[in-house]
UniProtKB/TrEMBL annotation:
Superkingdom of origin organism: Bacteria
Gene3D superfamilies: MFS general substrate transporter like domains (1.20.1250.20)
Name of the protein described by the UniProt record: Conserved putative secreted protein
S-adenosyl-L-methionine keyword on record: no
InterPro entries linked to this entry: MFS (IPR011701), MFS_trans_sf (IPR036259)
GO molecular-function term, one example from the UniProt record: transmembrane transporter activity
Ranges that cross the membrane: 5-23, 29-51, 58-77, 83-108, 120-143, 149-167, 197-222, 228-248, 255-273, 345-365
């Protein structure tokens, strides 16, 4: 878990670091920086299930070696590339990014007994929150205090080191009890990508849509009220609330389902838009919804782990990563559009309603793929 935490740090730092590099050093606008971010996100969404599938087929080491070389090469060469070339290679670099999230879930599933996985997934989600507290701040500090070539090369070196450590450690991605399963043929996608799994993907996408929209709306609210200086403290407070929720979720014997947690997350986000100042009151009303952040993400992992056959668990976890990234990718522009054409408060409402709409698509999909039960005919 510590190894995967270290592997996630450069991943959480790369978005803001690349944005500031494109804006400050290349002299481009935020739209141009957003195109690179969108290309990287789209690439990672495409690549996550493919990389997961190759992990299932060939094991951890070959995949980590290829992805580690690709990620480190991209970031080390980035400060020496013109913008057009940087944009062109952003998508393939996203496809071949180190799959730290997928690997972390596979390793935990292999090493942790079934009855203790909720606690393990919750702890992993807490470490994800911790990485988002450290990574972006470190990236901002590096790109603003050091020459850009050092900042971007440093991210590439971090990717190389983390991939090397994972390669040398070679943690198990398959439980010993599942060894026989991997010796057989791979089941076709239609046999295991059930309505339950698809619905879990949609719920995860909805949760990330709500979370990124909530964060964007919170920052817009602070800016509108003149409290933008408190944005760092507010984001930290939101992360602490999520960590607390993850600890509670991992400690209880029974927890709410993934769908119930996501609905509560959305419902508690709806009234936040009624508060626009002061910043500390906004933090208080954001606390309940953020407490549900880590539990919802952990429950998503737990649901997919339980529903996916061991033989294709890597690909299933990759699909979960892809769904989460799609939720993030579509959340920012949609909520940004709502805020630009209304007010920051409506951003919270749109985040909640959008999340519920995305989850509803998953529910509809599951019901449409579940055959109706035909009552048995009995003769008198």
């Amino acid at each position: 878990m510590l190894l995967m935490f270290l592997a996630r740090l450069p991943m959480t730092a790369m978005g803001v670091t690349m944005t500031l590099y494109v804006v400050n050093d290349l002299g481009r606008g935020y739209g141009a920086a957003g195109l690179i971010g969108a290309a990287t996100t789209l690439g990672s969404a495409i690549g996550a299930p493919l990389v997961g599938r190759y992990v299932d087929r060939y094991g951890l080491r070959p995949v980590v070696a290829i992805c580690g070389v690709a990620s480190s090469t991209f970031w080390i060469s980035a400060p020496h590339l013109p913008y057009q070339v940087l944009l062109a290679v952003a998508l393939p670099a996203g496809v071949l990014s180190v799959p730290a999230g997928t690997l972390a879930r596979l390793v935990l599933t292999a090493l942790v007994p079934l009855e203790q996985r909720r606690a393990a997934y919750s702890l992993d989600t807490i470490l994800v929150e911790a990485s988002f507290m450290i990574g972006p701040s470190a990236g901002i500090m590096a790109i603003t205090q050091l020459p850009a070539v050092y900042a971007l090369t440093g991210i590439g070196v971090c990717f190389a080191l983390s991939a090397t450590l994972i390669y040398r450690q070679n943690p198990p991605i398959r439980a010993e009890a599942d060894a026989e399963v991997f010796s057989g043929e791979r089941p076709p996608v239609r046999s295991w990508l059930t309505g339950r799994l698809v619905m879990a993907m949609f719920i995860a996408a909805g949760a990330l849509f709500c979370l990124v929209g909530m964060e964007l709306a919170a920052l817009a609210t602070l800016r509108a009220s003149g409290d933008i200086a408190w944005s760092g403290l507010l984001i930290t407070f939101m992360c602490v609330a999520s960590v607390l929720g993850g600890a509670i979720h991992g400690a209880v014997r029974r927890s709410l389902s993934q769908g119930t947690l996501m609905v509560l997350l959305a419902v508690l986000t709806l009234p936040v838009g009624l508060i626009d100042h002061p910043w500390w009151l906004l933090a208080i009303v954001l606390f309940p919804s953020n407490v549900l952040c880590a539990p919802t993400l952990a429950a998503s992992t737990e649901t997919v782990s339980a529903a996916a056959p061991p033989r294709v668990r890597g690909e299933a976890m990759g699909l979960l990563d892809a769904a989460s990234r799609i939720g993030l990718a579509i959340g920012s522009p949609i909520i940004g559009f709502v805020i630009d054409h209304s007010s920051p408060g409506w951003g919270f409402t749109a985040s909640a309603l959008g999340a519920l709409a995305i989850a509803s698509v998953g529910l509809f999909w599951r019901r449409s793929r579940t055959p109706a039960r035909v009552p048995a005919l009995t003769s008198s």
